[in-house]
Amino acid sequence: MRALRLREWKSDPVLVDVPDPEPGPGQVVIRVGGAGACHSDLHLMHEFEGGQLPWGPPFTLGHENAGWVVALGDGVSALQVGQPVAVYGPWGCGRCARCRPGAENYCEDPANAPVPSGGGGLGLDGGMSEYMLVPDARLLIPLPDGLDPASAAPLTDAGLTPYHAIRRSWAKLPPGATAVVIGAGGLGHLAIQILKATTAATVIAVDTRTEALDLALKNGADLAIPSNDGTTASIRDATGEHGADVVLDFVGTDATLAMAAAAARTLGDVTIVGLGGGTLPLSFFSVPYEVSLQTTYWGTRPELVEVLNLGARGLLQPEIVQFPLEEAMEAYRQMQDGKLAGRAVIVPS
Ligand code: FEH
Ligand code: ZN
Ligand code: ZN
């Protein structure tokens, strides 16, 4: 089969022929129906170098995947050949105190995971190929009726990551509250939909790009504000000078982190999701009183079930641009140039 493989750090991936995977005991092979192209893949291609992560190339890209079961390893009885499934992406050990309730994104025993801290498309072979080997049936969630694999794929990361970040802040988003989404791209446009579907908060989107602000309004944002020197003042203005109860930063640069802290309300949450590499000085007066500041990484398996439920009911609809496997690099180019409105999904077959 053909596979888009990252062969070494700081290189473009290449489309090559590799053997079809065979499932070992407890494993499952799926035919890939969709593999989302994530902004993190650009970091993998251009920024990381040996030793920075506990895993590395070569591996097939694609860490947000869905498809159909094609082969079951010995002992797998919970799935059937032909069944449509989504792949839960962060592959932990499956046995530690975090993994048992499904928070494999925060596995505490990564040495016993298939690969430390990674997953398919992150050190192990991912979904940018015709077939994908999933090392344990527990990592596959049957798709609910109404959801096809190409639409489900982005939900496993671009949907699950903001869902997790928003869900942990639900208590701070009662009616009357305000949530700010910084960066209305692949994750941000779904964050807006999730906020709208699961809270009664007013949603303000912030982005530098006019098209992203248009996308935000189309996806239900109440207000879309260009990112510039006046953004924080506009947010304060829109919130009766209080600031935002929850600020979700899907960019994570120095500039957006400073904006997030300045826009937050006392007792609010500032959550850093984007890998922009920025830093935020923290001191007694640098953020409003009792603002909680956190990073989040991906989401849990039970949360993925909830995200797929929202997707199947039409409450979460990723804006998708489909590309065949041969044009995957074009998808990444458009993403790099900021020309993609929504999420690129590679459909290999
Ligand atoms: C991938 C690799 C490293 C950090 C974060 C990510 C996310 O895209 C996973 O959702
Ligand atoms: Zn990702
Ligand atoms: Zn674990």
Bound ligands, named by name, code or SMILES: (1R)-1-phenylethane-1,2-diol, zinc ion
Structural class: alpha/beta
The shape is globular
Overall CATH architecture of the largest domain: Alpha-Beta Complex
Q: What do we call the CATH topology of the largest domain?
A: Quinone Oxidoreductase, Chain A, domain 1
Cα separation of the termini: 10 Å
Question: Helicity range of the residues?
Answer: 10-25%
List low-pLDDT spans.
none
Catalytic activity: a primary alcohol + NAD(+) = an aldehyde + NADH + H(+); a secondary alcohol + NAD(+) = a ketone + NADH + H(+)
Cofactor: Zn(2+)
Family: Belongs to the zinc-containing alcohol dehydrogenase family.
Domain Enoyl reductase (ER): 10-346
Description:
- This protein folds into 2 domains: about 1-155 and about 300-345, Medium-chain alcohol dehydrogenases, catalytic domain (Quinone Oxidoreductase, Chain A, domain 1, Alpha-Beta Complex); about 160-295, Rossmann fold, CATH 3.40.50.720.
- The protein is about 25% helix and about 25% strand.
- The protein has 9 helices and 18 strands.
- The chain has helices at about 40-45, 150, 160-165, 190-200, 210-220, 230-240, 255-265, 300-310, 330-335; strands at about 1-5, 15, 30-35, 60, 65-70, 85, 120, 125, 130-135, 140, 180, 200-205, 225, 245-250, 265-270, 290-295, 320-325, 345.
- The model has no long low-confidence stretch (mean pLDDT about 95).
- (1R)-1-phenylethane-1,2-diol binds near residues 38, 122, 275 and 298.
- This is alcohol dehydrogenase.
- InterPro entries: ADH-like_C, ADH-like_N, ADH_Zn_CS, ER, GroES-like_sf, NAD(P)-bd_dom_sf.
- Its cofactor is Zn(2+).
